Amino acid sequence: MAYEHPSQDALKQLLSSSKTIAVVGLSEDPTRTSHMVAAAMQNKGYRIIPVNPKAEQILGETCYATLAAVPEPIDIVNVFRRSEFCLDVTKEAAAVNAGAVWLQQGIVNEEAAAYASAHGMDFVMDACIKVVDAILLPEGKQHK
After folding, report:
1. 66, 68, 75, 78: which has the fewest Cβ within 10 Å?
2. Total structural domains in the chain?
3. CATH number, domain at 64?
């Protein structure tokens, strides 16, 4: 079965019901897209959990080497990794019972989409979570 992008209603429901976003591949460098997107989502009220084995802290939050090391439930796993790593990240997300996997704009992996679907997780690919959130949840809909 081919990947089908979720409807706007489904995306709005996913974002409005989610509070915790683990960001795999979050960079310490504030000029990198992953950092800017995660900072914007944090400012909007989402709890950001950095997942980067090379850092100790990003955006004022403790950084974890893997999703398995995160000591709390994860609503969305936002992925800033190349497409070839996304299936493994999706398998890790399923292992920790994450609710969804979201691949950023330009990142596509049909096999990861199929795996997520088979394991009951929502899946979004080739879309910027910050842009979608800004469009579907106006500033008045903060998560704080």
Report:
1. 68
2. 1
3. 3.40.50.720
Domain span including residue 130? 26-136
CB 108 within 8 A of CB 83: yes
81 vs 134: CA distance, rounded Å? 22
Distances (CA, A) of 11 to 7, 17, 49, 109: 6, 10, 20, 19
Can you tell me the mean pLDDT for 110-138? 95
> What phi-psi label fits residue 25: left (phi over 0), alpha (psi between -120 and 50 degrees) or beta?
left
Residue 19 lies in a domain: no
3-class secondary-structure state, position 92: helix
- What residues form DSSP beta bridges with 48? 21
